[in-house]
Amino acid sequence: xxxxxxxxxxxxxxxxxxxxxxxxxxxxxxxxxxxxxxxxxxxxxxxxxxxxxxxxxxxxxxxxxxxxxxxxxxxxxxxxxxxxxxxxxxxxxxxxxxxxxxxxxxxxxxxxxxxxxxxxxxxxxxxxxxxxxxxxxxxxxxxxxxxxxxxxxxxxxxxxxxxxxxxxxxxxxxxxxxxxxxxxxxxxxxxxxxxxxxxxxxxxxxxxxxxxxxxxxxxxxxxxxxxxxxxxxxxxxxxxxxxxxxxxxxxxxxxxxxxxxxxxxxxxxxxxxxxxxxxxxxxxxxxxxxxxxxxxxxxxxxxxxxxxxxxxxxxxxxxxxxxxxxxxxxxxxxxxxxxxxxxxxxxxxxxxxxxxxxxxxxxxxxxxxxxxxxxxxxxxxxxxxxxxxxxxxxxxxxxxxxxxxxxxxxxxxxxxxxxxxxxxxxxxxxxxxxxxxxxxxxxxxxxxxxxxxxxxxxxxxxxxxxxxxxxxxxxxxxxxxxxxxxxxxxxxxxxxxxxxxxxxxxxxxxxxxxxxxxxxxxxxxxxxxxxxxxxxxxxxxxxxxxxxxxxxxxxxxxxxxxxxxxxxxxxxxxxxxxxxxxxxxxxxxxxxxxxx
Length: 596
Fold this sequence. Notes:
25 helices
């Protein structure tokens, strides 16, 4: 991936550190949030010691009925709470019971948001202990609907909103955020939210949701997370006419005006938070996503989940799937529907992994991978008209217009959808894929329908299993229920970026890394693929269960941190002897603390 972006940087690599861009950083656990500080007494500081009514209104310290008798006396809570006391476990049981009464997912989303704003530790306790049930609520697919209706359900702000009105004053805006020690920023401009298009300022639901997962799944402290939306307007006419829309009512700024605002933002982030703050670009449109990653990859710690995170999680699934479909990575032929951020990012990482394993130049390994965009198969004859990030995938072949004709011409063993267009893997396409694989003795075709939310998935799990007569190995971006076919129950996998980015982020934080390199993404993929057990394979799964995600994230973090030390971009010295144990000790613990 870095090799592709190098062309946009005039040959500069992320490892070519610019001494002018290096500044200090570092974060201490002042709030008692990490697993390593669970048994320590903490003082509930805000700007002074929180007590009484203000303590009950502070989500970071509020425990509700779990305040002990001694704490109620010490912090002037007598009379402000009912006389009963409760454990955190009982509070969790009650909240889950209440959540399950809601029939509409958006109602559950709003209830969880309200809990997060009232009692932060209980929110994360629920999410960690019930991750498989609540992940589709906190993130895709429900977060997509939440973003579409964000103006209507908006109650109180979460994160920072930086608009064109703040141009020239972005550093001042960052200083308005109450926390000074930020480790991870997730930022969006709302132009390409999931598969839903331009949602403008209402895209804030994505950074908020992603950072909730950084904490719950990866253990990054909530106090060290900052969601940001950059509002440059929207081209969504429906939103511009919506009386409840919360953003700027103007068409999107582009060109120089847009670039200057983003440049000021990136400079202000480094000036305010230091060299080691991770900036994750989220749901930017293709033309801006690649440009920003190329421009700031050599001067900042930046990561694009749509390009790099998706690539890492899909590569992990493909590597794991080899145990079910047979052969080595280099023996398979890949066909993508979709040649945007996700498609080209995945393709590049697969090519890099094949190159790493076979020692064949990546320029050659790319030839095993074919991409189809809205105009058909990407071939050499189209090269002049292609966007720069598509050009490496233009191979010698006659023009092919439709996906079904591309499937028949290429005869892939792996079909991957990242188009953002639902139901494009038709019965004809999947049956053709299955027939070629049967002839080639690859009995189990691999089908990855990655587009989000569920409505935009290229096919459903039921369609994949039915049209391949139960032979397919299937995973999707959003969750599908188990499918029964011919008396057998098939459990579809979920190729969810949440497997990768929380552990990757934690690894960058604990090592004090100052750059993200492709080798770190490969390290994260290999760590995830290594977590798939024989029992998972026996059930046709190519990803481990989310119930073990904290353990998975710690393993990924350790692998990423080890690679950062190996590449010389880690600054937290000396290197810990056992990186897995160190990662686990640094992970946020949602258990209530005892107050002095």
